[in-house]
Every structure is written in C-alpha cells, then in structure tokens.
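Study this protein:
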Amino acid sequence: MMKRAIGFSGLIAGALALAACDGMMAGGETAPELDIPEVEAGDLSEATMIDVTRELSSDEFEGRMPGTIGEEKTVALLTERFEAAGLQPGNSGSWVQEVPLVEITGSNFAPLTITNGETDLVYDFGSEWVGVTYREDAQTQLANSELVFVGYGINAPERDWNDYEGIDVEGKTVVILVNDPDYETPGLEGPFNGKAMTFYGRWTYKYEEAARQGAAAALIVHDTAPASYGWNVVESSWSGPQAYAARGDNAPPMTSINGWIQKEVAAEILSSRGFDLAELSAQAKTQDFEAVELGITASTSFQNDIRTFTSQNVIGILPGSEAPEEYVLHTAHWDHLGRCKAAPDGDDICNGAVDNATGTAALVALAEAHAKAGAASRSLVFLAVTAEESGLLGAYYYASNPVFPLDQTVGGINMDAFQVAGPAKDVTVVGPGKSQLDAFMNAALEADGRVATPNPKPEAGYYYRSDHFAFAKQGVPMLYIDGGEDLIDGGTKAGAAVAAEYTENRYHGPKDEFNEDWDWSGVMADLQLYYRIGRSMAMSSSWPNWNDGDEFRAIRDESCAGAETGC
C-alpha cells in the first residue's frame, strides 16, 4: 500500500470511530435494471494463498523492489503460477507488459525565495517547503515566477465550479489549498460531497489541473486535518528518489515544480502583501471565489539525477466463451519496498507479506478457481502491477497503455493487503456509493451472509490511493474492498487491536513477514466475495457505470459514446 494505512492497517480510525463514518452504505444506487446473475461459490485453494504468500515474502525475494533480483523472481513465479492455473498470456502471447520507469533524485535545493518589494522571505527545503519535478531535466529553475492564490485549484464544470475562471496563470506559480471546499461539512451533502473527499481534493488532481492551466509551479498549502497526515509524511514522501512512469509521445503538460509549503509559511507569504490566509480560505469555499494575484514572485532551483529502467506488469487472461472482447479486471500490486531501515535485530528486508504478497497470491487463487469453473461469458483478466509503492506507476502505465481497450473493460476489483486475523462479519468498503458495481457487491455479500461497513474516514480520500484509482481516472468502474472491522472473535475492539499492532510494528517495515500461525479463514471469506463479484460481472450482460454526479462519470460516458463495441 502506498503512503497509507487503511482497512486492515487503518482500522484504528474506523473501528474506534464508527460514529464518524460517512453514513453512505455501499449500494447507494440499487440499479434494479442491472443483470446480476447468481453464481456458485468458487473452489478456492487456501494452500495456494499460503504457499504463494510465503514464497513472495521470503528473504530470497529481497522485498520485491522493482528493478532488482526480487522483481525477476516475482515475475518468474507469477508467470509459472498463472500458466499452471490455466490462464493464457495476456499481452499478445507474452505474460508481461514492460513498464518504462524514470527515477529522479533532486539535490542541492535552493531555498524558496519570495520577493516582496524591497524584502525577501526565505524558506528552507524540508522543514518549510518541499518540491519535486516530473520533468526529465538535469536542472530545475524557477525564477521570479508570479504567485497567484487559486483557492482549492478546482475546475469542475459538472459542479459549476472553476477556481481558475478569469485568471491567466501561464508561467506563474499557483498556491492551492488541500482537500475540497466543503471538507469541514459534518455530513455528506455539499458541492463536493461534504466531508467525503473527492478526486478534486487530492494533490494529484491539483497538480494536473495546474499544469493544464499552464502554471510553471504549484504549491499546496499543507494543513494536517484536511490532508489527513502531518508534515512529517509530506517531508519524507517528497524527498529522496522519486519514481515516475516514463512520458511517451503526446504526454499531457507538466509544471516545472510541484510542491508543498507549511501552513505557517503560506500565512506569512500572504500577510506580507496584506492578505489573511484564513479570510482567503473562507472565500475559497464559495462558488463566487475569484483567484488573487499576490503581487510577489517565487524563485528556487535544484539539480536532478536521472535513472531509467524497465519494470514489468504481469498479465494473464481466461478468455470468455461468448463475449471474449469484453473484460473483467482483477488487480493487485506485486512490488514492495526492497531493503529498508533495519529493525533492532538488523533485519533490513521489507518483505511485504501482508502488503501485498497476500493480494498477489489472491490473483493466483482466483485464477485457479475461475479456470476450474470454466470460461465465463466475458474474459477475466488478472493483472499484477509494478511500482504501486512508488505512486501506482504500473497501474497508471497500463491504464494509459491498455492491453485490453478500456471501453471494452466492464469494471474491476482491486486487492491490496488482506486481513490475516480471522473471520469478520463485515467488509470495509472504500469509496461506497460511487458506482453501480456496488450492486454486484451487495448481491455477493447477501449470498455469503455478510454486511458492508462504510468507509471509516471518507475525508482522507483513501479511494484515490491504490491501484484501482489509475483505472477510475480513465473512467473504468472499480471496486476497492478491505478486510472487515467487526471480527467474529472479539468484535470491533479486537479489530482495532489487530490494526494498531500491524500499523505500529509491521506496516512498511521489516516485520511485515509471513507467519505460519496466521488464521486464513477471514482471508478465504474475503476471497470468496471477490470470486462471486468477478464471476457475476463476467456472466452479466450489463455495463455498470459510475453513479450520477460522480467525478468519473463524464469520463466513462465520453469513452463509451465513441466506442463501436463494448460499453
């Protein structure tokens, strides 16, 4: 899991604060018109789950870092197991899709200097601001770039909202607030779904929109509550080597610098020109907000060391019997962190057993079960993606260079870190109420006698932080379901304790290791749910869409409108 701890690793917030849940249960749209076939339970192998998880997370695989011997061993194991399961190579006779990656490491960071008339405000890299470039330039230079405060930096025509209206930011540096304008709303009503973060609240969107507007740089104002993490997370995540998918021809525009500034820094910068950050932030929450030219400039520079290498997504397919050119997707990331900060005992291999050897093993187990059941009407695709921990890079690359056309991809399920603490009465739905896939999930839950618990912390925007998001951005409906919070043995209190132990002692550390004493019954129950959902989608004749008003609905509608086949 990339830069987060959620579900199994995020039960702390959810299990202890269900009263703060978003209140929107999965299935906000019942979609009675959908064709949702009943399917028999799958013949799922617990032995496969155990064996593949154990092997992938062994020290021999060295933490499965892309571009290392760990990747070579992982790709070899997955191709062997996919073939043995009965799949066919998914990429024109090949089991892999090559993913060109670029690693950029910044150095020699100059301070961020704000020129205000006769005086300069100077801010140190790391403690007061951070920034990176996505461009493959040896030197990054921002020189006397005019600053513009653009509120939340949102341009959402379907919500009648445009923070850039009437302002030209070409070549300028935009200052942007984190999250959505209505994030402080107690409930889920508002122009941007109240406290439930939308895509427009994520930093990824804000940087992309700034680039579309022609900005030279984009600086997001960090604030712990709306960001859902402290400055320490920003500083650690946005310093050191940064990996990106290589940009191909006709790539979208990019800013020269994307970065963050401390809230106190932003307040001081604005105050130097007679503006109050709190007052401007309040104005930015309204639809009639107008961007503010601050009358000051920003400058900084840094050098970049650039390394290119190729990683691999692994793809297997079980062709459909009646509609083989319609695809149901299953995704999980195979990578982890490689060698990392050593534990007190000297162990420096981040094995990634839970995160995400379990999800990768689930691809193999599901492939076996679907193959045993015989071909479904539609094709079933099993995609193990690389470089999730570096920013969903393998998923983004596939979504931008799909092996199977996205307008012929019905939808998908993403699996990231299974709970290994015994069975739960529920599952945690991340991003409930977004698409008609909820109806397929509800039918599977009913068949298995389980219930859905809503997203425990909608304001954190967890839906936008795992591999499924790369496909959602391209319009493909995707489900993301985590382990339950209400354990059969011990209830929510036990679930919170399990989550706390994992997050504090093992998440993204050397002690996320395989344990022979794990209770796999909860894993197998969740896997059965995934099997039913995927099988039902593959046997259906329906094309589920995003719900009305969802930020990805227009993208899917446009994609489908131009399709001769598929949706």
